[in-house]
Amino acid sequence: MKTEKDSIWNFNGTIDATEAGEGVLRKILSYTDELMIVENHFEKGAVGALHQHPHTQITYVVSGRFEFEINGEKKIVNPGDSMLKKDGILHGCVCLEKGILLDIFTPMRKDFV
Fold it and tell me: Is residue 22 part of a domain?
């Protein structure tokens, strides 16, 4: 099932995941024009390639362990950690231990729907 814009109730177990790269599955949990929350499941060794976009993004580490690069700086992050990536900032990650990242975007990512 695909999440619909402005849907009030979205149950994770009914949302289809789509492939977002080798070893990465993406679930769009909820969104409006102004805000979007996305769950990303990473296998160990999967890469979120360096990229940038015109959206401010906050990433929360739900589980696993990741090496993130943000604006040329690399750090290891663990469950409970979060990162802020303002619009236009180059960023990416490598999954060191299988895990889940929760991304919040403003405005929503039209390219994801």
Answer: no
